[in-house]
Amino acid sequence: MPICLALCCVKKPLVPAQVREALPANFEATAKTAVYPTAEWSELQPQKAGINREKLKNLEQYLFTTTGKEAERKGIRTDAFVLVRGGNIVFERYARDFHKNRKHLAWSVTKSFVNALVGMAVLDGKLKIDDSAAKYYAPLAGGSKAAISIDHLMRMSSGLDWSEGYESSPLKSSVVAMLYTRGRSDMAAFAAAHDVAYPPGTHWYYSSGTTNILTALVRGQYTTVPALGAVPVATDSRFEELIFHRLFRTIGIRFTTFERDAAGTPIGSSYLYTTARDLARFGYLYLHDGVWQYQRLLPEKWVRYTTTMAPAYYTTELSEEDFKDNPGAQWYVNLGIPERAQERPWPDAPADTFAALGHWGQSLFVIPSLDLVAVRLADDRDGSFNKNRFLGLLKNILEKAS
Prior knowledge:
This protein is α+β, with helices and mostly antiparallel strands. It has a single domain, classed as DD-peptidase/beta-lactamase superfamily (Beta-lactamase). It has twelve helices and 13 strands. Strands 1-3-2-13-12-11 form a six-stranded mixed beta sheet, covered by helices on one side. Helix 2 packs antiparallel against helix 12 (about 385-395) and helix 3 packs parallel to helix 7. It is globular. The relative contact order is 0.21.
């Protein structure tokens, strides 16, 4: 997701809020396999995975051909690329001193991990997605904020007043204040303290603050509060188990770190440090409908919920930047809105493509119809990288040689 928000809005016809799913009807039935990675990914030659080597070279050239001086940080700057098909790594390459075990800042790809934490809490019966978020997070209690549901937060439709501008408007930026100045002590509470600017569920706006509220909300459901008269220190042991044992350890994530704010809450909006191989495991979990080795980690149909377009996105006048990616629930989908002449953001990719996206080119693409998971970690600075061109080249690698 590009980190800077354009100031002007696009005057295109709005359409009624609706439910539009990215995944085919048979996704849950077909997206399962007995092939899962163990402690290490198995590797397979591209040809044996049905990949055209010549087409793969075109993709590799696009990803790793650099222009300009390194210090200028111009052009396409891929640091890591991992491609998985059929449960095997079929292509992998690194640049700029990165390697398979070196962590990379994932930026807003982190938000998609928060989607998983919320899903696991729903599976545990700790949360209900349509409940008022105030039921689980006290800073949202009272007044019009009580109408904000967990679903609204998941779909960035809370209506809370927020400015996601970075370089474009640093002095007025809510997100800069949250991450770096007066909000650092408790990022979720800082975000929740903002006023309601729109009726919840009616207006979509990209907000890192809402993701941090979700992280704190989930944390609260797994935090043991000390008994009356005991030492007043809460323990996060069950929350730590949720992240690092039940999620990370189960799917084999080993080289991933969550940075925390001063309140001890993981910064779910932005600060996950991970590797391309670990991210591929996370994408593989979503490719298989939240199931790992026959163990269900996410609720049934959670991936379908995740990849359903945010209803408020249809009824919001959007900036040019917001037209580039269609939001689901802390992930992105490839649907478009024909009713207002908005084409799919990645027209050269299959319609069922969905993605976790972050600043400066971080991306995790899942394409169920092609049985592909593709991870790209990068340091793009000037907008040269084109996701649609990349996805078109990626799709083409499955074409047979002529």
